[in-house]
Amino acid sequence: MRKADQFADAYYLVRDYAGTDGELDVANADADAAVTLAVHAGIAASDVICCARLGEHAQGKNHGEATGLLRTNGTWRPCSP
């Protein structure tokens, strides 16, 4: 979860820089960077959840694979390297 937290922390920094009152200003080009950081935070969190819950995580570029893994109801086991 450390990597997800790092991306989330960076998102908040960029969001605050790019927007006003914590809201993203879509006219500001830095808003795109904030959204990208938020997406990466979600992907990293998904990997941790899937690894802890299923013993695997999505490794491809298809985000649908990660979504499918998150929806499964596997048993808890350690993540394989």
Set down the secondary structure blueprint.
Layout: H1 2-18, H2 30-54, H3 63-71
Helix pairs in contact: 1-2, 2-3
Give a short synopsis of this structure.
The protein is mainly alpha-helical and 81 residues long. It is 63% helix and 0% strand.
What can you see in these coordinates?
By secondary structure, the protein is mostly helical. It has one domain (2-71). The protein is 63% helix and 0% strand. It contains three helices and no strands. It has helices at 2-18, 30-54, 63-71. It starts with a helix and ends in a 10-residue tail after the last helix.
Distance between the termini: 16 Å
Summing up helix and strand content along with how strands pair, one would put the structural category as mainly alpha
- Shape, principal axes of CA atoms: elongated
Q: Order of helices and strands, N to C?
A: HHH
Low-pLDDT parts are none
Helix content: 55-70%
What's the total number of strands?
Answer: 0
Query: What is the averaged pLDDT score?
Result: 77
Classify the oligomer: single chain
Number of helices: 3
Task: Bin the strand percentage.
Answer: under 5%
Please state the CA-atom Rg, rounded to the nearest Å: 15 Å
Number of spatially distinct domains: 1
Largest sheet: none
